[in-house]
Amino acid sequence: MFDSPEVMNIVYAVAVLGILGAVFGCVLAIASKVFEVKKDPREEEILGLLAGANCGGCGYPGCSGCAAAILAGDAPVTACAPAGPDAAAKIAEIMGASAPTGEREVAFVRCNGGVNAQRRFEYVGLMDCVAATKVAAGPLECAWGCLGYGSCVSACQFDAMHIGPNGVAVVDEDKCTDCMACAAACPRHLIVSVPVSKKVRVMCLNQDKGKAAMSVCGSACIGCGLCERECRKDAIHVVNGIASIDYAKCVNCKLCTKVCPRDAITPIATAEEKEKYKEIKKKQAEKAAAVKKAAAAPAK
């Protein structure tokens, strides 16, 4: 049977292939040992502590890229916001650094326009904010307004973003990990990171002058400066026509919310709260005027 030349040729070919496979296998095995890149075992430990969502919020290509950056010292131990403070503390321990301190932060959408914003046309197309901006710069009159088509919702890996009843994106702070993938997805750059305990927040980014801002949105900040003058902690200022809060100074007193004529600062004060505050201010003014008058009166 094996005396046939054709059969012997097949046997020889198989034998040669087997020998070559074994030789190349040995060469590859030796090469893998010779050219092996030694990997710091701490990288795997760090990777195991990250969220594993590969959300890209850290700015690196996935969790493995983030772990490598932390190990190399190119990223802080807090680079993975979704992992949370406990994981950051463990990563700091691995890196031989002190545990990070600081308050948890969450994403916040600086817009409350939605149904209050004027529209130039009705957009019909892909339900995506980036796609909507490609059509004549978007359907809203306000160039800073939330388009409400959910690019941020799609980007969020933690079910923390939704479109609210007024057509504006809102954040579920209990679920938010501050990864800021939503911010990267927003074509109008409306989403910022704020300390979770600081509830006084400006819900607008419209930098138009007062009358122009009012003409495009019923909730637009008009840069009137009433909030700035009312704040007793120097925590809010009008910059580029828009109110901005310094959270290092803000104490959540909410006085600015009570004087905002556009309800552009959250938590929005009710009509009763505003009226009550007006009465308090009026009495304070009357008392100050009486004291001033008494001081100016000639002594008897």
Individual helix count: 11
Q: Judging by the overall fold, what is the CATH architecture of the largest domain?
A: 2-Layer Sandwich
How large is the radius of gyration?
A: 31 Å
Compute the separation of the termini in Å.
141 Å
Order of strands in the sheet with most strands:
1-4
How many structurally independent domains? 3
> How would the global form be characterised?
elongated
Largest β sheet strand count, sense and barrel closure: 2 strands, antiparallel
User: How much strand content do the residues show?
Assistant: 5-15%
Helix proportion: 40-55%
Give an account of the 3D structure:
By secondary structure, this protein is mostly helical. It folds into three domains: 1-36; 41-95, 3-methyladenine DNA Glycosylase II, Chain A, domain 3 (Orthogonal Bundle), CATH 1.10.15; 105-276, Alpha-Beta Plaits, CATH 3.30.70. 40% of the residues lie in helices and 9% in strands. It is built from eleven helices and eight strands. Strand 6 (236-239) and strand 7 form a beta hairpin. The longest helix is centred in the N-terminal third of the chain and has 30 residues, at 5-34. The protein is elongated, with a radius of gyration of 31 Å.
